[in-house]
Amino acid sequence: MDIAKAKRRENIAEYILYLWQLEDLMRALQFSPEAIYSTLIAPRKDIAEEQKHIFLMWYLDLATLLQQEGKEEKGHLEHTLHLIQDLHDLHLQLLKLPVGEHYRQTYARLEPELPRLRAVIGNPGMSDTELCFRALYASMLYRIKGEGNKSAVTDTLEFISPVIAELADLYGKVERGEIDLFKNDPEVPKGE
């Protein structure tokens, strides 16, 4: 809960990937309140005893959402998919607007890799932004399994990470009102 809130404030991409990781963890723990508590809450020394029930309720709410959305075995919460769509909408704006000049240069290095990536990940109707998130998550899982040196993983990180990092940074700046998409100078914060 506290980690998710901090990630949501600081970096939308990390927040999405973190929630996806929690989704898989909830499934691995079979949505059991006891397993969730003993695995995710009890070992933490930074949570006061009287706060632990609040953390448990947050995890259980996440588990309930997965069950309500019929994603007990696979899939991602609609919440994260909506955030990815918001990021994709921003991506499309950055491809057209003057404020996106640097982003377009970063994205241009990734663009030729997208057909190969789409062939590996599948789902031809998926947006480029969701495709990138799915590839990043897959590479994260490979690293956890100790297979992070595979060329597919290193290629993914080399081409996708800079694009998603810049997109997430710009998303945060737009959300906080630090940049205006429709201004020509992206370096001048709003109001100066």
Structural overview:
The chain has 192 residues and is mainly alpha-helical. It folds into 2 domains: 2-68, no CATH class; 78-175, no CATH class. 68% of the residues lie in helices and 0% in strands. The chain is built from 9 helices and no strands. The chain has helices spanning 2-10, 12-28, 33-41, 52-68, 78-96, 101-110, 114-121, 128-144, 151-175. Helix 7 (114-121) crosses helix 8. It is globular. Residues 188-192 have low confidence and may be disordered.
Gap between N and C termini: 35 Å
Which assembly state applies to the chains in this document? Answer: single chain
SS elements, strand count: 0
Question: Quick check: average pLDDT?
Answer: 89
Q: Low-confidence runs (pLDDT<50, min 5 residues)?
A: 188-192
SS-derived structural category: mainly alpha
Summed up, the domain count is: 2
Helicity level, as a percent range? 55-70%
Shape: globular
Q: Count the helices. How many?
A: 9
> How large is the radius of gyration?
18 Å
The fraction of residues assigned to DSSP E strands is under 5%
Tell me about the largest β-sheet.
Answer: none
> H/E order of the elements?
HHHHHHHHH
